[in-house]
Known about the structure:
Layout: H1 3-21, H2 30-67, H3 74-102, E1 113-119, H4 123-144, E2 147-155, E3 161-169, H5 173-177, E4 182-188, E5 199-209, E6 223-228, E7 244-249, E8 254-258, H6 264-294, E9 307-312, E10 317-320, E11 325-327, H7 330-334, H8 339-358
Parallel strand pairs: 4-9
Antiparallel strand pairs: 1-3, 1-5, 2-3, 4-5, 6-7, 7-8, 9-10, 10-11
Helix pairs in contact: 1-2, 2-3
Amino acid sequence: xxxxxxxxxxxxxxxxxxxxxxxxxxxxxxxxxxxxxxxxxxxxxxxxxxxxxxxxxxxxxxxxxxxxxxxxxxxxxxxxxxxxxxxxxxxxxxxxxxxxxxxxxxxxxxxxxxxxxxxxxxxxxxxxxxxxxxxxxxxxxxxxxxxxxxxxxxxxxxxxxxxxxxxxxxxxxxxxxxxxxxxxxxxxxxxxxxxxxxxxxxxxxxxxxxxxxxxxxxxxxxxxxxxxxxxxxxxxxxxxxxxxxxxxxxxxxxxxxxxxxxxxxxxxxxxxxxxxxxxxxxxxxxxxxxxxxxxxxxxxxxxxxxxxxxxxxxxxxxxxxxxxxxxxxxxxxxxxxxxxxxxxxxxxxxxxxxxxxxx
Length: 359
């Protein structure tokens, strides 16, 4: 199906839904009414974009005839020529806007996210870097006006994080952060390095769409829940009650542990929230496996073993290897201020790759 046929199909469906919701197609039950209303709302901007594009194309054809009409006076032909080139300049942007609107939507884009950061190779230096990445995303969330809540933090006692999990709530969180999943590499001189040698360490980041209970239903009989006493860094007890919770999902063997809260009930709720997100992402990965295998130009697979970015502190640069973009503003990136430049570039590259697939 070519693009014009796609446009015709979208406009026809938009008109059909509008008529049915206006009662022209007979009575509609409540469930279908909600479903059709949602579909119409999604098609509204697409249909409007197609209409605007086609109007501009029609106007361009009209002024093209006028500017080339030998019977028209010179002033009229000049005005037509100016209008023609003005429309010609606008058309590519209008076409791109419609094509972007037609791209298949990731149903998880509008969801909140669960962020998981883990220290990788590099010992304590990797743990320190993991803690810095975690704080980078916390600052970025603040810049975006999102809510950032630490759900579970396993620290080393020396300022580093072995693992840290947070819930991020706000508008379009997952859509903006989903390309952050993967291995983040750091190159710098550790504070413990007396010889001034540059070391390479790594941390892994996973960004999962937060799942609601309607997305993932967990059967209690599939869970093994252990409670134990919370431990601080270095084995120091931070709680005198068994408030820490470890949840094992038996069918998948996924293990989630939470001990940040003093309440066992709150720790269990947080653990189930993380578990639900991991199960939802597992389902998404299984569904997307075939599609991802067919995508040659994808920005990133989301595979946590894929090295996606290098933070080189001596040179003050951050390089994203998927799109070959280097920013010489590492301090602003780590402050969360310039991270959006990388995020925007990744979104644009993904859109370009998916548009290429449509052609």
